[in-house]
Amino acid sequence: MNRLFLKRVWITVIFLLSAPLLWAQAQSTSIDEAMRSHDKIYVVMAVCIVILVVFLLYLIRIDRKVSKKEKSL
Predict the structure, then answer these.
(1) With helix as H, strand as E and coil as C, how does 14-51 read?
(2) Which residue from 1, 25, 27, 67 lies 20 to 30 Å from 19 (Cα-Cα)?
(3) pTM, rounded to two decimals
(4) Average of pLDDT values for 2-19?
(5) The dihedral of CA 12, 18, 20, 22: what is its sign?
(6) CB–CB of 36/42 below 8 Å?
(7) Cα–Cα distance list, 37 to 32, 34, 49 (Å)
(8) Cα dist. 36→49, 62, 71 in Å?
Protein backbone atom coordinates (compact mmCIF):
# COMPACT_ATOMS: atom_id res chain seq x y z
CA MET A 1 0.00 0.00 0.00
CA ASN A 2 2.83 2.36 0.86
CA ARG A 3 4.60 1.74 -2.47
CA LEU A 4 1.44 2.42 -4.43
CA PHE A 5 0.90 5.69 -2.59
CA LEU A 6 4.51 6.74 -3.18
CA LYS A 7 4.22 5.89 -6.87
CA ARG A 8 1.06 7.99 -7.21
CA VAL A 9 2.72 10.91 -5.45
CA TRP A 10 5.70 10.81 -7.83
CA ILE A 11 3.45 10.66 -10.88
CA THR A 12 1.46 13.63 -9.59
CA VAL A 13 4.63 15.62 -8.97
CA ILE A 14 5.94 14.86 -12.45
CA PHE A 15 2.67 15.96 -14.07
CA LEU A 16 2.51 19.14 -12.01
CA LEU A 17 6.09 20.07 -12.88
CA SER A 18 5.63 19.38 -16.58
CA ALA A 19 2.45 21.48 -16.96
CA PRO A 20 4.25 24.88 -17.15
CA LEU A 21 6.45 23.52 -19.94
CA LEU A 22 3.37 22.88 -22.05
CA TRP A 23 2.12 26.42 -21.59
CA ALA A 24 5.53 27.89 -22.40
CA GLN A 25 5.40 26.48 -25.91
CA ALA A 26 2.46 28.68 -26.88
CA GLN A 27 4.52 31.85 -26.58
CA SER A 28 6.62 32.99 -29.52
CA THR A 29 10.27 33.55 -28.70
CA SER A 30 12.82 35.73 -30.41
CA ILE A 31 14.77 32.65 -31.52
CA ASP A 32 11.67 31.27 -33.18
CA GLU A 33 10.98 34.54 -34.97
CA ALA A 34 14.59 34.89 -36.07
CA MET A 35 14.70 31.38 -37.52
CA ARG A 36 11.47 31.92 -39.41
CA SER A 37 12.54 35.28 -40.75
CA HIS A 38 15.77 33.85 -42.16
CA ASP A 39 14.19 30.56 -43.34
CA LYS A 40 16.52 28.55 -41.11
CA ILE A 41 13.60 26.65 -39.63
CA TYR A 42 13.31 24.81 -42.95
CA VAL A 43 16.97 23.81 -42.76
CA VAL A 44 16.43 22.39 -39.28
CA MET A 45 13.35 20.50 -40.45
CA ALA A 46 15.22 19.11 -43.45
CA VAL A 47 18.08 17.90 -41.28
CA CYS A 48 15.63 16.23 -38.88
CA ILE A 49 13.86 14.49 -41.75
CA VAL A 50 17.15 13.28 -43.22
CA ILE A 51 18.20 11.89 -39.83
CA LEU A 52 14.87 10.08 -39.42
CA VAL A 53 15.03 8.60 -42.93
CA VAL A 54 18.59 7.37 -42.41
CA PHE A 55 17.61 5.86 -39.06
CA LEU A 56 14.62 4.12 -40.64
CA LEU A 57 16.77 2.70 -43.46
CA TYR A 58 19.30 1.50 -40.89
CA LEU A 59 16.58 -0.31 -38.93
CA ILE A 60 15.25 -1.95 -42.09
CA ARG A 61 18.77 -3.11 -42.99
CA ILE A 62 19.34 -4.57 -39.52
CA ASP A 63 15.95 -6.31 -39.64
CA ARG A 64 16.81 -7.95 -42.95
CA LYS A 65 20.15 -9.16 -41.62
CA VAL A 66 18.55 -10.61 -38.51
CA SER A 67 15.83 -12.29 -40.55
CA LYS A 68 18.44 -13.83 -42.85
CA LYS A 69 20.39 -15.18 -39.85
CA GLU A 70 17.21 -16.60 -38.30
CA LYS A 71 16.37 -18.44 -41.51
CA SER A 72 19.83 -19.95 -41.74
CA LEU A 73 19.56 -21.44 -38.24
Answers:
(1) HHHHHHHHHHHCCCCCHHHHHHHHCCHHHHHHHHHHHH
(2) 1
(3) 0.50
(4) 80
(5) negative
(6) no
(7) 9, 5, 21
(8) 18, 37, 51
